[in-house]
Amino acid sequence: MPFVAIQFLCALCGLRDSEMSTKMSDSIIETQNLTRRFGRVVAVDGLSLSVRRGEIFGLLGPDGAGKTTTIRLLCGLLAPTAGSARVAGFDTVRQAEAVKRRIGYMPQQFSLYGDLTVQENLLFFADVFEVGRREREERIARLLAFSRLEPFRNRRAAQLSGGMQKKLALACTLIHHPEILFLDEPTTGVDPVSRREFWEILTELHLEGVTLFVTTPYMDEAERCSRVALMLDGRVIACDTPDRIREGVTGHLLELRPQRVREAARVLEGTPGVLEVQVYGDRLHVFVEDPQRGEEAVREALARAGIGVDSIRPTRPRMEQAFISLIRRRH
Amino acid sequence: MGRTLTVARKELLHILRDRRALVVMFLIPVVQLFLLGYAATTDIRHLRTAVLDADRTAQSRDLIAAYRASNYFDIVATVGNEEELGDLMDRGAVRAGLLVPAGFGADVAAGRQASIAVVIDGSDPNVANTVFAASQQVGLAHSLRLLERRIGTSAAAVTPLEVRPRVWYNPQMRSANFMIPGLVAMILFLLTSMFTALSIVRERERGTIEQLMVTPIRPIEMVVGKITPYVGVAFFDILEVLAIAVFWFRVPIHGSLLLLLALLALSMVTSLGIGIFVSSVANTQQEAMLLVWLTLLPSIFLSGFFFPIEAMPKALQAVSTIVPLRYMLVIIRGIILKGVGLEVLTEQVAALAVFGVGIMAVAAARFRKRLG
Fold it and tell me: Averaged over A77-98, what is the pLDDT?
């Protein structure tokens, strides 16, 4: 029975049978039918995931999909209504203390002490995790350098910019060398430059072997993940590498700039050979069954409706299109 | 232990960083004490009084002088008729009226029983009671004097009974001696429950509690760590308030200061427990503040702080037995005013111990549940 469950899990996450035996022993996070209800709302619905040691695992999905609840369940902040989760080999409910010593959690909103300085915040978390006195100095120095916060060590946290606050929060969660780092929308509300810098830091951590579990609403960030799970209404609707998720979308993608976008979208939705139409500002993304014939069909349909079009070019679907497509075709 | 100290140190930094909170913590008790020490007085003297003298004789002037000399009545107006008096009373310009009818002097001179009237504003029964008694006392003394004059010997020779009241503990019956020890208890209660509730709710409001929950800190370590600095602050405030009571308001401490501090520490278990309980209910600092006030206000009225418990209806007397402040007041007034020792206060100490343990247990259970 467990074997069947494992097989099912692997199938769900796109693991081939041959990979199974080796990968399974490497899995650092495992959930089985993890479920959490809030009253009538099922925030997380029968989640079965497996995250491998050392990977960057991205949990994507729109607001309200259940991403934060999932992270909170995995960190032991919430008790599941049903199902179970093992993190770093420990049960999140029965062995919560053991889990806490091995993970770092960075919540979505800034939750450090604004009236304490950068250094004081770091010292506080070092003491809380009982990092030895000598080790503490060395680690704080390293983390300050690593997060490029050294020049601000005596500044109060409230007076840091949004991006710097995120980096400080990250540094605080790293003080005890966690094996797994949970990051809940770490770059939301951060400027693009800081965002890139933040991801550079995450990549360094990845190279050091830390497992990263990241939720994000940004699809470009999803591309940086080893594997991603797409979450919708509390369920994971797809789980694979970003490449395979993109390839998994049936049809070929055309990008075009018609004159009247909304009207063009309506016309194309009824055109034979067109699978799906997505609107992006002044552009349309159209999934068609066949690239050549599809393009002709699109041109004809628009010409018949008297809508001019600048350019039509085939393009590779990005995560964003793949994701929207996956969601739409479910309904 | 180490983590508790870590949390305590962090909390101390919060306190030191917040200049405004610092001022509030050390100044508010002083302001409260001065305000309430002067305002919350039931010593009724110098009541504004109007006189309606329809007699206008040496005898009537003599009587009015006797009332004035008593210090209870300040004659601030002289009126010609009862309407004028009524008008002054309505407007609150005077709180009492002394009416001497025409023929008063003649009656006194003739040795007949003369009568006068005293009108009292009874809106505040406290005031009215005192004035009522004072008006009779002054009248009685004056009538004895008239009697002495008539029979030519001292009154002691003719009055068969003399009552000599002796007031213990507070011989001058200063209300400050009664009020200020009560204030010490109230300030302690307010500060500790308020500071505790606010400091924990602040972590929730800022979302930092979630960050703490994924660390090895246990809830008990967090709570104990957080309240420790405030216990220190509360003790400092107590000493501050007691010093003002003794050196400024001249309230003598008759009992053992050490016993007083020890029992205040015991009372603190209850008020800290209330603070923790409130913090497990409230989501914001405003809510917490409101909840603390909602527990404190009925406490003040039911504890015997202003009004004696014996005077309350039976049902309220029963309710007052579950008001911790009631026992705190007995202890603190007992030690400061009467100088009693632990052996007299066992009942109150036991009650506070039960409250402390009970409230702490409930608060801890709720607090843990709230986190989970």
Answer: 92
Q: Which of A112, A115, A128 sits opposite B215 (nearest CB)?
A: A128
What DSSP character marks residue B111? T
pLDDT score at A245: 85
Residues 67-86, chain A, touching B (beta carbon < 8 A): 75-77, 79
For residue A310, give the CATH number of its domain. Answer: 3.30.70.100
Q: How confident is the model at residue A2 (pLDDT cuts 50, 70, 90)?
A: very low
Shared domain for A229 and A255, answered yes or no, is no
| C-beta atoms of B3 and A105 within 8 A | no
In the stretch 143-172 of chain A, residues with CB closer than 8 A to chain B read: 172
Tell me the nearest-neighbour CA distance from B307 into chain A, angstroms: 44
Contact B10 A100 (CB under 8 A): no
Instruction: Kindly tell me the number of DSSP H helices and DSSP E strands found in chain A.
Output: 13, 15
Pairing relationship of beta strands B47-53 and B96-100 according to DSSP bridges: parallel
Q: How confident is the model at residue B111 (pLDDT cuts 50, 70, 90)?
A: confident
Q: Is B332 inside any structural domain? A: yes
Angle of helix B324-333 relative to helix B175-206, nearest 10 degrees, comes to: 140
DSSP code for A117: B
A25: pLDDT confidence band, cut at 50, 70 and 90?
low
Spatial distance between the Cα atoms of A28 and A17, rounded to a whole number of angstroms:
19
pLDDT, mean of residues B10-38: 87
- Asked if residue B238 lies in contact with residue B159, where contact means CB atoms within 8 angstroms, the answer is no
Q: How far is A69 from chain B (nearest CA, A)?
A: 13
Residues B116 and B216 in one domain: no
Nearest by Cα to B191 from B235, B228, B221: B235
Report how far residue A117's alpha carbon sits from residue B211's, in angstroms, rounded to the nearest whole number.
Answer: 17
Top residue of B211, B220, B226 to mutate, by most chain A CBs within 10 Å, is B211
Greater model confidence, A319 or B142: B142
Per-window interface: A 105-144 vs B, CB < 8 A: 105, 107, 109-116, 120, 124-125, 127-130
Q: Is A107 in contact with B211 (Cβ distance < 8 A)?
A: yes
**Does the residue B168 lie in any domain?**
no
Q: Dump the DSSP string for A270-306.
A: TSTTEEEEEEETTEEEEEESSHHHHHHHHHHHHHHTT
Query: Domain containing B317: what range?
Result: 2-41+174-371
Residue written as tokens 């494992």?
A6
Mean pLDDT for all residues in chain B:
89
> Are both A127 and A108 inside the same structural domain?
yes
A29, A74: one domain? yes
- Cβ distance of A100 and B215 shorter than 8 Å: yes
Beta-sheet pairing, A283-288 with A50-52: unpaired
Which residue did the predictor score with more confidence, A207 or B364?
A: A207
Q: In this predicted structure, what is the pLDDT of residue B4?
A: 92
User: Which residues constitute the domain of residue A293?
Assistant: 249-330
Instruction: Mark which residues 209-238 of B lie under 8 Å from A by CB.
Output: 210-217
Asked whether residue B219 falls in the same domain as residue B319, the answer is yes
Q: Dump pLDDT digits (tens) for A192-212.
A: 888 888 899 899 999 999 999
Domain tally, chain B = 2
Share of chain A above pLDDT 70, in %: 92
DSSP-assigned letter for residue B214:
T
Closest partner residue to B2 (CB to CB) among A101, A124, A130 is: A130
